[in-house]
Amino acid sequence: MKRFSWNGLTARYPALFALTLLVLALGINFLLQPNLFARDTLNSNMRVFLPLVILAAGQAVVILGGGIDISVGGIVSIVNTILATRVGLEGSPAAMWQYVGISLLVGILAGALNGFFVAYLRLQPIITTYATSFLYAGLALFILPNPGGGIPTTASELYRSSVPLGLPLAFYVIAIILFVWGYIRSTRYGNFLFSVGGKAQAAYETAVPVTTIQFSTYVISGLMAAFSGIAITMLSGSGNAEIGSAMTLNSITAVVIGGTALSGGIGGVAGPMLGAITLGFLQNIISFADIDTWWETLAKASIIVAALATPGLINLIRRRRA
Amino acid sequence: MTLSLSARNVVKRYEGVVALSDGNLDVNSGEVVALIGANGSGKSTMSKIINGVVVLDGGQLLLDNQLVHFTSPQAAKKEGISTVFQELSLIPQMSVADNIWLTREPLDRFGRVKRKEVISRTQGLLALFEGTIKTDLKPETLVSALPPDEKQIVEILKAISVDPRMLILDEATASLDSRQVQRLFELVRRWKEEGKAIVFVSHRMEEIFRIADRFSVLRNGKTVGAGNIKEVTEKDLVKLMIAKDSIFSFTRSDSKKTEKPVCLQVNDLHADTLKGVSFSVTEGELVGIGGLRGQGQRDLLLALFGDIPFSGTVEFAGKSIHFHHPKQAMKNGVALVPGDRNREGLLYIRSILENFQLPSWARYGFPLKMGKARKDAEKAGVNLNLKMASLQQPVSSLSGGNAQKVVIGKWLLRQPMLLLLDDPTKGVDVGTKAEFYALLTRLCEEGKTILFYSSDDEELVGLCDRVMVLHDGKIHAELGGATLTKEKLIAASLGVSEEGAQ
């Protein structure tokens, strides 16, 4: 009989840790908020979490491919300010659709710029996307210097309260992302992605188009950031150039909690999405636990650090015992 | 299917350093050509030009008498040229099957990889090495979980899975044991008969004579000789490689050993793969550890260095010791030259100076006396005949033999009493090997004790006073004096009992 091994299990199911953490967070959340599983509560929670879930999925693809994208928050902000200023509170559905399309294009372009720098000019991903993050955040401020603007209430209503077949909209979005990822993972592109993130030189020698793959991960991340920006705009109904800035680090945290290694080539996308949901519930717990707002950041950070350290601590204890 | 490839007057420079100044090579279908040369002579560069990993700066590459210009590995692959890379081209985080079929996955009509087919095809390939690999090497196993020899086999299978017209084997036997090499050679002969052209890059003379039809020798980036292998002897080739005679005839100092005190006494040592090992070594002795790969040799050295936990008693220099951490071993004058030079032995991208001084910085005070550190490193470099442009040069720019000198040098700077060597001449050219042998002999004369594992039987027989042969975690035989012959060593490695070997 093989002995139970946490390492072995997490290697096989990278999302396991995120799942464990999610169950824990849900449990505590449930104690604090007994109506947690009521449909309306679930719906309101999921629609708040969804922007980060989408963002984490994109971030996970870049990280799997051996890179990192610090600029996603900036892209979210640009998309938010474009929608809030161009569509406006009185905008027509047609205008909304038109600018949703433009937003996606902007996301792809922003991602392509990152990808060009990193893949073709061989610049350091962390520095490059850190620099472009200011570029994008600056653009967002240029478009909308002060919070304001908005989108038609019909659009935000659609996002906030449509429950097709009794399930919140967010579930469908998550299901679609998971389905698309499952497909991508099973194609040759999926193998290429993991090989480039695992060991780029070896992938190159095996005739994998390394540069193209790296480039594509940033485009995917940019596109997902645009989707995330659209979601958060529909959620808030208004514009704010600062809206995305806090989301970058959260997206990376979600990826790490989700069992996807920052070194690349290990993990998946489902784990990071679970990680993003977990982060959302942590936020919930903190708001329900009546913690003073100035303690909030500290409390949240402590929980995240503890959560991240747990697998390592478990291993350390096991080693000591052996 | 037939192919003829010819490289003419090939030139390749890396940032001003000439790696290849006049490389020539002719290979045709149905023959094995050995590409021979000392480390740094341009063998690897030559094979990388043929397979498109690097682009040549001058000269011509003719494929079937047509001028070709490979700008990427894809281009060469399209022409049916496949390579077993010395540094391996495997992705550690991916499975054996995914690695082998990467870029050539069978797809269904939705563009999805047919996993089942990938697995079954991989099983077919693994069957080629059946009997020489452990049964838990499955298509689904992650490459990172494999020992070096099995990684090498996966790399070979990956190269052959494209059914290439030409196969380049770059040091493909360096980490294989003798049974695996035997199987590989059977396969190479089969591939040759099927009409594949094979380039065999190796340091091992014996293997070259076993498998090659023709040879081509590189020296300092120039092709200095080529011809039919049947018309030359080992000595001829060595002469071509180093332009200096009889490098192999290192002399063993058979000085009358006076009774020296025991340096190391090991009793009933148990560790991961070790099942009770006992022996003793006297001061100034050079004791070899032999046997097939993976019989516990590595663990024995690691245990003595405090790198892995073990049970049993060890007496060193008259004291009972039990190291729990390499730093304790270092403090007591023990040094380990590990088996995986680039990963364990060196800070690969850092400078020669840093690598030399890494275990010794504590001696240079605070702030560090850099002048003295540099002078000491300089001296060590000269003593070891290290070929370098400057101490600031990264170790990654050195050839295998020179890099290994840095690994040994960093320990010698600490004046160790006991040196543990884990296959130190693996992937090292003959010239440097001879220097190593002389160095080890000199160290023993100075009173240092050496425990020396080698996968090269000839080396053990030629160099050591005594060889302990490990088999399945135990000392199966101890050979010395008249009983230390290559035949007996091989017999003992295979687990044959003393009587059976006679």
Question: Secondary-structure map with pairings?
Answer:
The complex is a heterodimer of chains A (322) and B (502).
Chain A: H1 6-12, H2 16-32, H3 39-64, H4 72-86, H5 93-120, H6 125-143, H7 153-161, H8 169-186, H9 188-198, H10 200-205, H11 210-236, H12 247-257, H13 270-288, H14 293-321
Helix pairs in contact in A: 2-13, 3-8, 3-11, 3-12, 3-13, 4-5, 4-6, 4-11, 5-6, 5-11, 7-11, 9-11, 12-13, 13-14
Chain B: E1 4-14, E2 17-28, E3 32-37, H1 43-50, E4 58-63, E5 66-68, H2 73-78, E6 81-84, H3 96-101, H4 115-126, H5 148-160, E7 166-170, H6 178-193, E8 197-201, H7 205-211, E9 214-219, E10 222-228, H8 234-242, E11 262-270, E12 275-282, E13 286-290, H9 297-304, E14 311-316, E15 319-321, H10 326-331, E16 334-337, H11 341-345, H12 352-357, H13 370-383, H14 400-412, E17 418-422, H15 430-445, E18 449-453, H16 457-463, E19 466-471, E20 474-480, H17 486-493, H18 498-501
Parallel strand pairs in B: 3-8, 3-9, 6-7, 7-8, 13-18, 13-19, 16-17, 17-18
Antiparallel strand pairs in B: 1-2, 1-4, 4-5, 9-10, 11-12, 11-14, 14-15, 19-20
How would you describe what is shown here?
The complex is a heterodimer of chains A (322) and B (502). Chain A contains 14 helices and no strands. Chain A has 322 residues and is an all-alpha fold. Chain A has one domain (45-315): ABC transporter involved in vitamin B12 uptake, BtuC, CATH 1.10.3470. In chain A, helix 3 crosses helix 12, helix 3 (39-64) packs across helix 13 (270-288) and helix 4 (72-86) runs parallel beside helix 6. Chain B is α/β, with parallel strands linked by helices and 502 residues long. In chain B, 33% of the residues lie in helices and 25% in strands. Chain B has a six-stranded mixed beta sheet with strand order 6-7-8-3-9-10, sandwiched between helices. Chain B has a six-stranded mixed beta sheet with strand order 16-17-18-13-19-20, with helices on both faces. In chain B, helix 15 links the parallel strand 17 (418-422) and strand 18 (449-453). The model of chain B is unreliable at 245-253 (pLDDT under 50). Chains A and B meet through helix 9 and helix 10 of A and helix 2 of B.
